[in-house]
Amino acid sequence: MSEVIISVSLSAEKYLEYYRGYASGVIAYDSWGRRIQIPANILRPFVTSQGVHGRFRVRFGPGNKFQSIERV
């Protein structure tokens, strides 16, 4: 299993683009500066009225399939 630590700072309006069908993924950068694209829906548990903000550990399984996400 591989994992990355990413920082996310999305306003509520920006995250709404996912619900409106304008975006399906979120692009973030990991702690090494690599560009990571994740499905926007995995951030749903962390959405507040201000959007999504924080550092997260994202774990991937075989074939780089999403496994889990947690706030760090």
From TrEMBL:
Pfam families: DUF2835 (PF11197). It comes from the Bacteria. InterPro entries: DUF2835. This is DUF2835 domain-containing protein. It comes from Oceanospirillum sediminis.
